[in-house]
Amino acid sequence: MKKETYGFAAILIMFFLIYPGMINAQDISLPSPSRKGGMPLMEALNARASARLFSEKEPSLQQLSDMLWAAWGINREADGKRTAPSSRNVQEMDVYVTLKTGLYLYDAHGNLLKQVHGRDIRALTGTQDFPATAPVNLVYVADLAKRGVKEGQPVTDTDLLSSWANTGFMAQNVYLWCTSEGLSCVIRALIPREKLEPEMGLRPLQRIILSQTVGFPAQQ
């Protein structure tokens, strides 16, 4: 029996040596978000700012949970409504999270990060250098099928208007949370979408709206 156990363990070790990317091929369960405390609102508004210099230090799972809940979490469980407004409560927005360990989709209902794949694509979330080494890049994606747009139908500015507004609300929530928590962030529109979309495996009616880099301030 022991020989069989050791043999099975050896097979597993060999598997992970041959396919190292599979080690991180898993979802990330997040702790419950902390909904109390933090900096007073007026102080956070007064201190809110953009930054483009980031440390490579990674935020804790608790910080990831709190930040994502601030962005697009559920604050009214009875009817599933969110921390940011959504036109007609369509909730067409998705928040993708790019980390060193891969690409994830934030699942607010399950309070977890669902791994899409295990590749590091942070560099593709922007045209500047810092997204590649900053620990977290959020990518705000609109699923226009939820807004009633049919596949093959031309997508107009009117179709995207609400999603742009919704993303603005979500990004500002992240700004205020970062200010309160002592982290830095910056919202970005310059994104190589033609490269990033296929790497994310987006469907035809999913459109990247903006991205947002988050991390600890770099030591001066």
Count of individual beta strands: 9
The helix/strand series, from N terminus to C terminus, equals: HEHHEEEEEEHEHE
- SS-based class: alpha+beta
In CATH, the topology is named: NADH Oxidase
Shape: globular
Indicate the proportion of strand residues. Answer: 15-25%
Sheet with most strands: strand arrangement = 1-6-5-4-7-9-8
Determine Rg (CA atoms, Å).
19 Å
Estimate percent helicity: 25-40%
CATH class categorisation: Alpha Beta
Q: Quick check: average pLDDT?
A: 90
Q: Count every helix, treating DSSP H or I runs of 4 or more residues as helices.
A: 5
| Count of structural domains | 1
Explain the overall architecture.
31% of the residues lie in helices and 22% in strands. Helix 3 packs across helix 4 (157-181). Mean pLDDT is 90; it is low at 8-24. It is globular, with a radius of gyration of 19 Å. The protein has one domain: NADH Oxidase (3-Layer(aba) Sandwich), CATH 3.40.109.10. A hairpin with a 4-residue loop joins strand 2 (74-76) and strand 3 (81-82). Strands 1-6-5-4-7-9-8 form a 7-stranded antiparallel beta sheet, sandwiched between helices. Strands 2-3 form a two-stranded antiparallel sheet. The chain has 220 residues and is of the alpha+beta class.
Descriptive tags:
220 residues, NADH Oxidase, alpha+beta, seven-stranded antiparallel beta sheet, two-stranded antiparallel ribbon
How would you sum up this structure in a few lines?
This protein has five helices and nine strands. It has 220 residues and is α+β, with helices and mostly antiparallel strands.
